Amino acid sequence: MERTEERFSEKTLALMKEAIAEYPRKESAILPVMQLVQKEKGWVSEASMRFVAELLGVTEARAREVATFYTMFHLAPVGKYHLQVCTNISCSLRGAEDVYRVCKEKLGLEGRKQVTPDGLFSLEEVECLAACEKAPAINENYRMDLDPAKMGEIIEGCRRKGGR
After folding, report:
1. pLDDT confidence tier of residue 5, bands split at 50, 70 and 90
2. CATH T-level topology, domain 10-69
């Protein structure tokens, strides 16, 4: 299998070095380094996982384990507005399926994880966002106590902002 080399900006590389310096063992910096990868690239590709593994002296399998375990990491390109809707039990009991359904309808998407043709939105059903007390919730920056009408307003607000 041919390897593609992943490249990052000097700024990101410097931030990665700073993150690594914060830990007594460089492999402990895997989460902040992956977050920097995603911040620059928008997602964590296989090439990025290989880069992180080499940088931190861990196996590619370890880098992949981390990237695939956390819902905050995107393993494929996502839209500018990436909507993660929790449908775990707490959110489900408070209407998450209706919120998710409205997202799919308003965005014209099918399946568990897709991107709109214009690349503006992506939608993902996730298991837990750790905001059970204010269910249902979306995204890691938390929009909580949602209902279908509020969700529709959020989507329309994002559409008005567009690519800005």
Report:
1. low
2. Arc Repressor Mutant, subunit A (1.10.10)
